[in-house]
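User: Can you help me understand a structure? I only have the sequence.
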Amino acid sequence: MSASTADPRIVVLAGDGIGPEIVAAARRLLDVLGSFDYDEQLIGGISIDELGTPLSDDALAACRSADAVLLGAVGGPKWDTTDPDAPRPEQGLLGLRKGLGLYANLRPVKPFGALLDASPLRRERIEGTDLLVVRELTGGIYFGRKERRPEAAIDECVYTSAEVERIAATAFAAARRRSGGRGGRVTSVDKANVLETSRLWREVVGAVASRFDDVELDHLLVDNAAMQLVSDPARFDVIVTENMFGDILSDEAAMITGSLGMLPSASLGEGGPGVFEPVHGSAPDIAGEGTANPLATLLSVAMMLRDGLDRGPEADRVEAAVDAALAGGLRTADLFTGADGERRVGTAEMTDAVIAAL
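Assistant: Let's start by predicting it. Here is the structure, written out as C-alpha coordinates:
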Protein backbone atom coordinates (compact mmCIF):
# COMPACT_ATOMS: atom_id res chain seq x y z
CA MET A 1 0.00 0.00 0.00
CA SER A 2 1.45 3.35 -0.96
CA ALA A 3 1.66 6.11 1.57
CA SER A 4 -0.81 9.01 1.31
CA THR A 5 0.05 12.69 1.68
CA ALA A 6 -0.42 12.29 5.46
CA ASP A 7 2.33 10.74 7.56
CA PRO A 8 2.50 7.02 6.81
CA ARG A 9 0.91 4.99 9.60
CA ILE A 10 3.15 2.19 10.83
CA VAL A 11 1.94 -0.37 13.33
CA VAL A 12 4.88 -1.35 15.52
CA LEU A 13 4.90 -4.88 16.94
CA ALA A 14 8.06 -5.03 19.05
CA GLY A 15 7.33 -8.47 20.48
CA ASP A 16 9.65 -10.39 22.79
CA GLY A 17 13.34 -10.82 23.63
CA ILE A 18 15.51 -8.42 21.63
CA GLY A 19 12.46 -7.29 19.66
CA PRO A 20 11.99 -4.01 21.55
CA GLU A 21 15.69 -3.15 21.19
CA ILE A 22 15.95 -3.67 17.44
CA VAL A 23 12.60 -2.01 16.78
CA ALA A 24 13.74 1.01 18.79
CA ALA A 25 16.79 1.18 16.50
CA ALA A 26 14.52 1.05 13.47
CA ARG A 27 12.39 3.89 14.79
CA ARG A 28 15.48 6.03 15.35
CA LEU A 29 16.40 5.49 11.72
CA LEU A 30 12.89 6.25 10.46
CA ASP A 31 12.71 9.45 12.49
CA VAL A 32 15.83 10.71 10.70
CA LEU A 33 14.30 9.92 7.32
CA GLY A 34 10.95 11.62 7.85
CA SER A 35 7.74 11.86 9.82
CA PHE A 36 5.79 8.71 10.59
CA ASP A 37 2.70 7.96 12.66
CA TYR A 38 3.43 5.00 14.95
CA ASP A 39 0.83 2.75 16.56
CA GLU A 40 2.33 0.35 19.11
CA GLN A 41 0.57 -3.00 19.58
CA LEU A 42 1.38 -6.28 21.33
CA ILE A 43 2.21 -9.62 19.73
CA GLY A 44 3.69 -12.92 20.88
CA GLY A 45 4.61 -13.79 24.46
CA ILE A 46 4.08 -10.33 25.88
CA SER A 47 0.59 -10.33 24.38
CA ILE A 48 -0.09 -13.71 26.00
CA ASP A 49 1.05 -12.35 29.36
CA GLU A 50 -0.98 -9.15 29.18
CA LEU A 51 -3.99 -10.12 27.05
CA GLY A 52 -4.14 -13.93 27.18
CA THR A 53 -3.69 -14.29 23.41
CA PRO A 54 -0.65 -14.04 21.09
CA LEU A 55 -2.53 -11.65 18.77
CA SER A 56 -5.59 -9.69 19.86
CA ASP A 57 -8.45 -8.70 17.58
CA ASP A 58 -7.60 -5.04 18.26
CA ALA A 59 -3.97 -5.51 17.21
CA LEU A 60 -5.00 -7.27 14.01
CA ALA A 61 -7.53 -4.56 13.23
CA ALA A 62 -4.86 -1.90 13.73
CA CYS A 63 -2.56 -3.73 11.34
CA ARG A 64 -5.27 -3.97 8.70
CA SER A 65 -5.74 -0.21 8.70
CA ALA A 66 -2.02 0.64 8.60
CA ASP A 67 0.24 1.52 5.69
CA ALA A 68 2.85 -0.96 6.90
CA VAL A 69 3.67 -3.17 9.87
CA LEU A 70 7.12 -3.27 11.49
CA LEU A 71 7.73 -6.42 13.53
CA GLY A 72 10.56 -7.28 15.92
CA ALA A 73 10.58 -10.89 17.09
CA VAL A 74 8.42 -13.26 19.14
CA GLY A 75 8.94 -16.20 21.46
CA GLY A 76 11.20 -17.44 24.20
CA PRO A 77 11.58 -20.33 26.64
CA LYS A 78 9.10 -18.72 29.03
CA TRP A 79 6.26 -19.69 26.69
CA ASP A 80 7.60 -23.04 25.43
CA THR A 81 5.09 -25.81 26.06
CA THR A 82 4.01 -29.16 24.65
CA ASP A 83 0.41 -28.53 25.72
CA PRO A 84 -1.54 -28.34 22.42
CA ASP A 85 -4.17 -26.13 24.06
CA ALA A 86 -1.76 -23.54 25.47
CA PRO A 87 -1.20 -20.34 23.48
CA ARG A 88 2.20 -19.97 21.85
CA PRO A 89 3.88 -16.75 20.68
CA GLU A 90 4.36 -18.11 17.16
CA GLN A 91 0.60 -18.36 16.78
CA GLY A 92 0.60 -14.58 16.73
CA LEU A 93 2.78 -14.60 13.60
CA LEU A 94 0.63 -17.20 11.87
CA GLY A 95 -2.52 -15.30 12.78
CA LEU A 96 -1.05 -12.05 11.49
CA ARG A 97 -0.08 -13.60 8.17
CA LYS A 98 -3.45 -15.26 7.74
CA GLY A 99 -5.40 -12.22 8.93
CA LEU A 100 -3.64 -9.89 6.50
CA GLY A 101 -3.56 -12.37 3.62
CA LEU A 102 0.24 -12.27 3.46
CA TYR A 103 0.95 -15.19 1.18
CA ALA A 104 4.42 -14.18 -0.09
CA ASN A 105 7.53 -13.90 2.07
CA LEU A 106 10.50 -12.29 0.29
CA ARG A 107 13.98 -12.81 1.75
CA PRO A 108 16.89 -11.31 -0.21
CA VAL A 109 20.31 -12.85 0.35
CA LYS A 110 23.26 -10.76 -0.84
CA PRO A 111 26.41 -10.61 1.27
CA PHE A 112 27.94 -7.19 1.86
CA GLY A 113 31.50 -6.93 0.59
CA ALA A 114 32.81 -6.16 4.07
CA LEU A 115 31.34 -9.42 5.40
CA LEU A 116 32.57 -11.86 2.79
CA ASP A 117 35.00 -13.28 5.35
CA ALA A 118 32.40 -13.39 8.14
CA SER A 119 30.46 -16.23 6.53
CA PRO A 120 31.30 -19.80 7.59
CA LEU A 121 31.59 -20.48 3.84
CA ARG A 122 34.77 -19.57 2.01
CA ARG A 123 34.87 -16.17 0.31
CA GLU A 124 35.36 -17.68 -3.16
CA ARG A 125 32.26 -19.84 -2.65
CA ILE A 126 29.89 -16.98 -1.85
CA GLU A 127 31.24 -14.13 -3.97
CA GLY A 128 28.67 -13.04 -6.55
CA THR A 129 25.71 -14.39 -4.58
CA ASP A 130 22.56 -12.32 -5.07
CA LEU A 131 19.45 -14.39 -4.60
CA LEU A 132 15.87 -13.99 -3.44
CA VAL A 133 13.91 -16.64 -1.56
CA VAL A 134 10.16 -16.41 -2.24
CA ARG A 135 8.39 -18.49 0.39
CA GLU A 136 4.68 -19.35 0.33
CA LEU A 137 3.38 -18.18 3.68
CA THR A 138 -0.24 -19.13 4.35
CA GLY A 139 -0.56 -22.78 3.25
CA GLY A 140 1.10 -26.13 3.79
CA ILE A 141 1.78 -28.06 6.95
CA TYR A 142 1.93 -24.99 9.22
CA PHE A 143 -1.74 -24.27 8.57
CA GLY A 144 -3.04 -27.80 8.05
CA ARG A 145 -5.25 -29.78 10.40
CA LYS A 146 -3.46 -30.79 13.58
CA GLU A 147 -4.40 -33.65 15.86
CA ARG A 148 -2.77 -35.06 18.97
CA ARG A 149 -3.51 -38.58 20.25
CA PRO A 150 -1.98 -40.39 23.22
CA GLU A 151 0.46 -42.31 21.02
CA ALA A 152 0.45 -40.32 17.79
CA ALA A 153 0.24 -36.85 16.25
CA ILE A 154 -0.99 -35.61 12.87
CA ASP A 155 0.05 -32.52 10.90
CA GLU A 156 -1.77 -32.26 7.59
CA CYS A 157 -0.15 -30.60 4.55
CA VAL A 158 -2.57 -29.15 2.01
CA TYR A 159 -2.00 -26.91 -1.01
CA THR A 160 -4.49 -25.75 -3.62
CA SER A 161 -3.67 -24.92 -7.21
CA ALA A 162 -4.65 -21.30 -6.60
CA GLU A 163 -2.21 -20.95 -3.69
CA VAL A 164 0.65 -22.36 -5.75
CA GLU A 165 -0.24 -20.25 -8.80
CA ARG A 166 -0.17 -16.93 -6.96
CA ILE A 167 3.17 -17.54 -5.24
CA ALA A 168 4.70 -18.81 -8.48
CA ALA A 169 3.52 -15.69 -10.31
CA THR A 170 5.10 -13.57 -7.55
CA ALA A 171 8.42 -15.38 -8.04
CA PHE A 172 8.43 -15.07 -11.83
CA ALA A 173 7.55 -11.37 -11.64
CA ALA A 174 10.38 -10.85 -9.12
CA ALA A 175 12.86 -12.61 -11.41
CA ARG A 176 11.80 -10.43 -14.33
CA ARG A 177 12.07 -7.29 -12.19
CA ARG A 178 15.51 -8.24 -10.83
CA SER A 179 16.80 -8.77 -14.38
CA GLY A 180 15.72 -5.28 -15.41
CA GLY A 181 12.54 -6.20 -17.22
CA ARG A 182 13.29 -9.37 -19.13
CA GLY A 183 14.89 -12.62 -18.15
CA GLY A 184 16.01 -14.00 -14.85
CA ARG A 185 15.73 -17.50 -13.51
CA VAL A 186 13.36 -19.18 -11.09
CA THR A 187 14.31 -22.35 -9.23
CA SER A 188 11.26 -24.12 -7.85
CA VAL A 189 12.05 -26.31 -4.85
CA ASP A 190 9.85 -29.24 -3.88
CA LYS A 191 9.90 -32.92 -2.88
CA ALA A 192 8.00 -34.25 -5.88
CA ASN A 193 9.60 -37.69 -5.66
CA VAL A 194 7.74 -38.30 -2.39
CA LEU A 195 4.95 -35.78 -1.68
CA GLU A 196 1.69 -35.42 -3.59
CA THR A 197 1.49 -31.73 -2.66
CA SER A 198 4.91 -31.29 -4.30
CA ARG A 199 3.73 -33.01 -7.48
CA LEU A 200 0.85 -30.53 -7.67
CA TRP A 201 3.30 -27.73 -6.90
CA ARG A 202 5.59 -28.74 -9.77
CA GLU A 203 2.72 -29.01 -12.26
CA VAL A 204 1.25 -25.61 -11.39
CA VAL A 205 4.62 -23.83 -11.36
CA GLY A 206 5.32 -25.25 -14.80
CA ALA A 207 1.98 -23.94 -16.06
CA VAL A 208 2.66 -20.47 -14.66
CA ALA A 209 6.08 -20.48 -16.35
CA SER A 210 4.35 -20.47 -19.74
CA ARG A 211 3.15 -16.92 -18.99
CA PHE A 212 6.76 -15.80 -18.39
CA ASP A 213 8.54 -17.27 -21.39
CA ASP A 214 11.49 -14.89 -20.92
CA VAL A 215 12.22 -16.31 -17.45
CA GLU A 216 14.13 -19.58 -17.16
CA LEU A 217 12.67 -22.27 -14.87
CA ASP A 218 14.33 -25.23 -13.24
CA HIS A 219 13.14 -27.63 -10.53
CA LEU A 220 15.18 -28.94 -7.60
CA LEU A 221 14.33 -31.41 -4.87
CA VAL A 222 14.65 -29.76 -1.48
CA ASP A 223 17.54 -31.92 -0.28
CA ASN A 224 19.52 -31.11 -3.42
CA ALA A 225 18.65 -27.42 -3.05
CA ALA A 226 19.94 -27.41 0.53
CA MET A 227 23.23 -28.91 -0.66
CA GLN A 228 23.64 -26.46 -3.54
CA LEU A 229 22.91 -23.45 -1.34
CA VAL A 230 26.18 -24.09 0.47
CA SER A 231 28.18 -25.53 -2.44
CA ASP A 232 27.28 -22.98 -5.15
CA PRO A 233 24.92 -20.24 -3.88
CA ALA A 234 25.76 -17.88 -6.75
CA ARG A 235 23.94 -20.19 -9.17
CA PHE A 236 20.58 -19.10 -7.78
CA ASP A 237 18.51 -16.09 -8.80
CA VAL A 238 14.99 -16.55 -7.38
CA ILE A 239 14.05 -19.59 -5.30
CA VAL A 240 10.34 -20.27 -4.87
CA THR A 241 9.14 -22.92 -2.47
CA GLU A 242 6.43 -23.94 -0.04
CA ASN A 243 6.05 -22.78 3.53
CA MET A 244 8.13 -25.21 5.58
CA PHE A 245 10.87 -25.70 2.98
CA GLY A 246 11.15 -21.93 2.62
CA ASP A 247 11.43 -21.48 6.36
CA ILE A 248 14.37 -23.87 6.53
CA LEU A 249 16.19 -22.92 3.33
CA SER A 250 16.07 -19.18 3.95
CA ASP A 251 17.65 -19.62 7.38
CA GLU A 252 20.36 -21.73 5.78
CA ALA A 253 20.88 -19.08 3.09
CA ALA A 254 21.20 -16.41 5.78
CA MET A 255 24.58 -17.79 6.80
CA ILE A 256 25.94 -16.75 3.40
CA THR A 257 25.59 -13.15 4.64
CA GLY A 258 27.65 -13.92 7.75
CA SER A 259 24.86 -14.04 10.28
CA LEU A 260 21.13 -14.50 10.66
CA GLY A 261 21.31 -10.99 12.06
CA MET A 262 21.81 -9.63 8.53
CA LEU A 263 18.70 -11.02 6.82
CA PRO A 264 15.61 -8.82 6.33
CA SER A 265 12.23 -9.93 5.02
CA ALA A 266 8.95 -8.64 3.65
CA SER A 267 5.63 -10.47 3.86
CA LEU A 268 3.24 -9.22 1.21
CA GLY A 269 -0.32 -9.89 0.05
CA GLU A 270 -2.75 -8.30 -2.37
CA GLY A 271 -3.32 -4.60 -1.78
CA GLY A 272 -3.11 -4.50 2.02
CA PRO A 273 -0.22 -3.58 4.29
CA GLY A 274 2.90 -5.71 4.33
CA VAL A 275 4.79 -6.93 7.38
CA PHE A 276 8.51 -6.19 7.52
CA GLU A 277 10.72 -8.05 9.97
CA PRO A 278 14.18 -9.49 10.51
CA VAL A 279 14.41 -13.21 9.91
CA HIS A 280 16.21 -13.96 13.19
CA GLY A 281 14.42 -14.90 16.37
CA SER A 282 13.97 -13.16 19.71
CA ALA A 283 17.38 -14.23 21.14
CA PRO A 284 16.20 -14.12 24.76
CA ASP A 285 19.71 -15.03 25.99
CA ILE A 286 20.99 -11.56 25.02
CA ALA A 287 17.81 -9.54 25.55
CA GLY A 288 18.45 -6.32 27.43
CA GLU A 289 22.23 -6.46 27.00
CA GLY A 290 22.41 -3.94 24.16
CA THR A 291 24.45 -6.30 21.98
CA ALA A 292 21.86 -7.39 19.40
CA ASN A 293 22.59 -6.80 15.73
CA PRO A 294 20.06 -4.21 14.45
CA LEU A 295 21.07 -4.45 10.80
CA ALA A 296 18.50 -7.04 9.67
CA THR A 297 15.81 -4.80 11.14
CA LEU A 298 17.25 -1.66 9.51
CA LEU A 299 17.40 -3.51 6.19
CA SER A 300 13.78 -4.58 6.77
CA VAL A 301 13.01 -0.87 7.11
CA ALA A 302 14.58 -0.41 3.68
CA MET A 303 12.27 -3.12 2.30
CA MET A 304 9.33 -1.39 4.00
CA LEU A 305 10.25 1.94 2.41
CA ARG A 306 10.60 0.37 -1.02
CA ASP A 307 7.88 -2.30 -1.10
CA GLY A 308 5.41 -0.91 1.43
CA LEU A 309 5.57 2.87 1.22
CA ASP A 310 6.80 3.50 -2.33
CA ARG A 311 9.87 5.40 -1.11
CA GLY A 312 12.59 3.67 -3.09
CA PRO A 313 15.26 6.42 -2.94
CA GLU A 314 15.15 6.40 0.86
CA ALA A 315 15.46 2.60 0.84
CA ASP A 316 18.58 2.94 -1.31
CA ARG A 317 20.01 5.41 1.21
CA VAL A 318 19.45 3.01 4.11
CA GLU A 319 21.12 0.10 2.33
CA ALA A 320 24.07 2.30 1.35
CA ALA A 321 24.38 3.50 4.95
CA VAL A 322 24.48 -0.08 6.26
CA ASP A 323 27.17 -0.87 3.72
CA ALA A 324 29.17 2.17 4.84
CA ALA A 325 28.95 1.26 8.53
CA LEU A 326 30.21 -2.25 7.81
CA ALA A 327 32.94 -0.97 5.49
CA GLY A 328 34.11 1.19 8.41
CA GLY A 329 34.88 -1.96 10.37
CA LEU A 330 32.02 -1.91 12.87
CA ARG A 331 30.79 -5.34 13.91
CA THR A 332 28.21 -6.53 16.41
CA ALA A 333 29.06 -9.67 18.36
CA ASP A 334 27.53 -12.05 15.81
CA LEU A 335 29.71 -10.59 13.03
CA PHE A 336 32.96 -9.99 14.92
CA THR A 337 35.85 -12.21 13.82
CA GLY A 338 38.76 -10.34 15.41
CA ALA A 339 40.29 -9.50 12.04
CA ASP A 340 42.39 -6.37 11.62
CA GLY A 341 40.29 -3.26 11.21
CA GLU A 342 37.23 -4.66 12.98
CA ARG A 343 35.73 -2.98 16.02
CA ARG A 344 33.13 -4.70 18.17
CA VAL A 345 30.11 -2.52 18.96
CA GLY A 346 26.64 -2.85 20.42
CA THR A 347 23.16 -2.15 19.10
CA ALA A 348 23.17 1.60 19.77
CA GLU A 349 26.62 2.30 18.33
CA MET A 350 25.89 0.33 15.15
CA THR A 351 22.64 2.24 14.76
CA ASP A 352 24.49 5.53 15.33
CA ALA A 353 26.92 4.64 12.55
CA VAL A 354 24.17 3.82 10.05
CA ILE A 355 22.34 7.05 10.85
CA ALA A 356 25.57 9.03 10.51
CA ALA A 357 26.23 7.41 7.12
CA LEU A 358 22.87 8.62 5.81
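Now, to help you interpret it: The CA atoms of residues 14 and 188 lie 33 Å apart. The mean pLDDT is 94. Let me know which part you'd like to focus on.
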